[in-house]
């Protein structure tokens, strides 16, 4: 492949999908991943004409499926330059005493273990080539804990620690590792968190201007176009109306 290759998990929606579009505009070949095959098929048409595009359908919770999908990449798609570990979500918003174990499992399995499974398959090639960039999509929930955020915040704090660990361990190989930690971004995130309750999900983003997925993708684009000696290690990006996970200025 003549172009640099970006491997993006969670490319069917929100931040991941916007990253696919922006990095394709930047000249990257795109590997888009997710569970919803029809959306991955449709994504091709949203990328600039002529963008080399390959998609992989897998659930990041399923280690064997992750490994098989990445092993199935044709030879010309195997030298991945940029890995964007983006797939993830919150499931539920309950005080710890009322939380659902299924929700806890989903968040730890997807946001933490899924990120590790994908990384486990892609990092060795970067180490061998002594080159590459890993961008983990964390969250302000990985920097602060908010009421009822318990396990989601735990999963994103784990992403924060794993990102720092990756940066230490991959330092001898010239691999760039960064975390982007967004505040509130208007995507399908809240729809998933509230299990399809549109009204409750829309309410999260009412009364202020939230980030758009494109605002985060713009930062990803900036990060991947820095010169070789520069890495944006850890960035928090917020809507202007948000000062912390618990302080949000809303006009009601
Ligand atoms: P979306 O719900 O719009 O997108 C989530 C993406 O993750 C989808 O493409 C989905 O694909 C994928 N995904 C979810 N579960 C799985 C799974 N089990 N296996 C494979 N892929 C999966 O949300 P966002 O774009 O907002 O979220 C992207 C990332 O940004 C997440 O890590 C989230 O925690 C983080 N984030 C979001 C914020 C926000 O306010 N929106 C703020 C801070 C961080 P599919 O369903 O097709 O599998
Ligand atoms: C998503 C932002 O504040 O809903 O990570 O946890 S928040």
Automatic annotation (TrEMBL):
Keyword Cytoplasm assigned: no
Pfam families xref list: adh_short (PF00106)
Keywords of this entry: Oxidoreductase
InterPro entries the record matches: NAD(P)-bd_dom_sf, Sc_DH/Rdtase_CS, SDR_fam
Gene3D superfamilies: NAD(P)-binding Rossmann-like Domain
PANTHER family to which the protein is assigned, alphabetical: ALCOHOL DEHYDROGENASE
Official protein name in the record: SDR family NAD(P)-dependent oxidoreductase
Naturally occurring in which organism (per UniProt): Cyclobacterium jeungdonense
Native organism taxonomy: Bacteria, Pseudomonadati, Bacteroidota, Cytophagia, Cytophagales
């Amino acid at each position: 492949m003549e172009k640099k290759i970006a491997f993006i998990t969670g490319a069917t929606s929100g931040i991941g999908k916007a990253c696919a579009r922006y990095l394709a505009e930047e000249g990257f070949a795109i590997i888009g991943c997710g569970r919803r095959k029809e959306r991955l098929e449709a994504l091709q048409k949203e990328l600039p004409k002529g963008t080399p595009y390959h998609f992989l359908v897998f659930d990041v919770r399923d280690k064997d499926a992750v490994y098989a999908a990445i092993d199935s990449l044709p030879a010309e798609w195997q030298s991945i330059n940029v890995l964007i570990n983006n797939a993830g979500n919150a499931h539920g918003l309950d005080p710890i005493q009322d939380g659902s174990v299924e929700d806890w499992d989903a968040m730890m399995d997807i946001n933490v273990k899924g990120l590790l499974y994908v990384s486990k398959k892609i990092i060795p090639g970067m180490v061998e080539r002594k080159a590459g960039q890993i961008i983990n999509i964390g969250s302000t929930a990985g920097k602060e804990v908010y009421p009822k955020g318990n396990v989601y915040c735990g999963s994103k704090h784990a992403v924060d620690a794993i990102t720092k660990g990756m940066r230490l361990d991959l330092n001898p190989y010239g691999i760039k590792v960064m975390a982007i930690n967004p505040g509130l971004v208007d995507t399908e995130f809240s729809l998933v968190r509230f299990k399809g309750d549109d009204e409750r999900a829309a309410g999260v983003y009412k009364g202020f201007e939230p980030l758009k997925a494109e605002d985060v993708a713009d930062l990803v684009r900036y990060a991947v176009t820095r010169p070789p000696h520069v890495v944006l290690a850890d960035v928090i990006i917020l809507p202007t109306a948000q000062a912390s996970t618990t302080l949000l200025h809303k006009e009601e």
